[in-house]
Design goal:
elongated, 417 residues, 31% helix, single chain, alpha/beta, 4-stranded mixed β-sheet, binds uridine-diphosphate-2(N-acetylglucosaminyl) butyric acid
């Protein structure tokens, strides 16, 4: 198994190119299932999850070609409506095939993803919403088996809690349903705008995207789409945290500051200078960071996907910080690993209390999930000595060539078998 090895203590300086967003690329890939017309996607990131999703689409019978940050997907040859456990267990986002398969073929059988390191992550909201649209379903041998023999119809869907992939699944299903669907308490995440843009090109009429009430109505759905994936706001925030911890001066090329308004205010409040610049965002930091209180929340709040990374920063800040994790019940696995590097973190339910220390020390740590591994990389960059992060494969799910990008700005980071 590969390890990421980091010799800490180097300031970062130079340019990092931000890749396309994983969490936008996967739903846009899923949307191609809705049509038998070939679809094209640009600015696709090179990630394990994108490869995994391409494999899942291929297993259904689609022709998928990924090359040089673009994807061509032709779902005219889809024959199977079953997403098998072996593929789904590696990537929870596989649930995104449920809505489009059911809408186009009248049936879908998708393995339940099961829990994961960050929480239980049920899919009951997806299933309840599809049932309101006329589907029937049963759980059989670990698979959710849903049928809509007479097609789906529009419905008023109220999500009890904001759900990103739930909103995406229903947006896609509603694109082929008869009549109008209104989604209340919809997710406002920018990745949903990316998906909606692809669906609009296909001929779906959508209003209210970016608000909590979205209306969707099928119009023609006679086209494919040619969609470009937005810059990854989570990768952007991760590198901002890296500069905060390691100090230095870095330009994040292609990053969009408008996707991170609230997090940027928060980074500034702890002493990281973040500014819009020509072609991206410039980030610099030269002083010890300040403490802060953070609540994770759905967009536009502070993203749970950046919580682990900022915890690494706050481990080195002046004073006591608090983080309340409101989205996932078990997303503090990185805290114990950061503590092994000398951080002073107490966990009390969904709250982390972080007392800043002067130094973190390199040691052997283990990545437990994607964002936890990013947090350990940030801590390793700032630490005194050598950090070895086991289970490096987690990071490849969501960060394109992270060592190469960090080496280009002066970090000493490499892989070891
Ligand atoms: N929830 C339910 N029932 C459901 C669906 C969600 O109870 O049917 C709960 C979840 O347990 C959670 C909350 O609702 O407490 C929000 O979960 P959500 O459904 O929004 O999460 P998701 O759609 O599974 C996406 C991202 C995650 C990101 C979350 C929150 C993708 C592919 N994944 O997951 O990304 O953390 O939204 O923003 O878009 C990551 O990239 O590292 C990652 C985990």
């Amino acid at each position: 198994m590969q390890k990421i090895v980091i010799e800490g203590g180097c300031e970062l300086s130079g340019v990092i190119k931000i890749s396309g967003a994983k969490n936008a690329a996967l739903p846009v890939m899923a949307a191609a299932i809705l049509t038998d017309i070939p679809c094209h996607i640009d600015n696709i990131p090179e990630l394990r999850d994108v490869d995994g999703f391409a494999e899942l689409l291929s297993s259904l019978g689609a022709k998928v070609s990924l090359k040089e940050h673009s994807a061509d997907i032709d779902c005219s040859s889809v024959k199977s409506v079953t997403a098998y456990y072996d593929l789904v267990k590696k990537m929870r986002a596989s649930i995104l095939v449920l809505g489009p398969l059911l809408a186009r073929f009248g049936s879908a059988k998708v393995s339940l993803p099961g829990g994961c390191a960050i929480g239980v992550r049920p899919i009951n909201f997806h299933i309840d919403a599809l049932k309101k649209m006329g589907a029937v379903g049963a759980l059989e041998n670990g698979y959710i088996n849903m049928l809509a023999p007479y097609g789906l119809h529009g419905a008023n869907i109220f999500f009890p809690k904001v759900t990103v992939t739930g909103t995406e699944n229903i947006l896609m299903a509603a694109s082929l349903a008869k009549g109008k669907t209104v989604i209340y308490n919809a997710a406002k995440e920018p990745e949903i705008i990316n998906l909606a843009n692809a669906l609009k090109q296909m001929g779906t009429h959508i209003t209210g995207i970016g608000s909590s009430e979205i209306s969707v109505e099928r119009e023609s759905l006679s086209n494919g789409f040619n969609e470009t994936i937005m810059p990854d706001r989570i990768e952007t925030g991760t590198f901002i945290s890296a500069v905060g911890a390691s100090k230095g001066d870095v330009v994040l090329e292609g990053a969009d500051i408008n996707l991170l308004s609230y997090p940027v205010d928060l980074y500034r409040s702890i002493g990281i200078n973040v500014k819009k610049c020509a072609g991206g965002i410039s980030v610099s930091c030269s002083k010890k960071l300040k403490s802060v209180s953070i609540l994770t929340a759905a967009y536009p709040g502070f993203p749970t996907d950046l919580q682990a990374q900022i915890m690494a920063d706050l481990s080195l800040a002046d004073g006591v910080s608090n983080i309340i994790e409101n989205i996932f019940e078990n997303r503090f696995m990185h805290a114990a690993e950061l503590s092994r590097m000398g951080a002073d973190i107490k966990i009390d339910g969904n709250q982390a209390i972080i007392r800043g220390v002067d130094y973190l020390y390199g040691t052997n740590v283990m990545a437990t999930d994607l964002r936890a591994s990013a947090s350990l990389v940030i801590a390793g960059l700032a630490a005194v000595g050598v950090t070895k992060i086991d289970r490096a494969y987690h990071i490849d799910r969501g960060y394109e060539k992270i060592e190469k990008k960090l080496r280009a700005v002066g970090a000493k980071i490499w892989r070891e078998n």
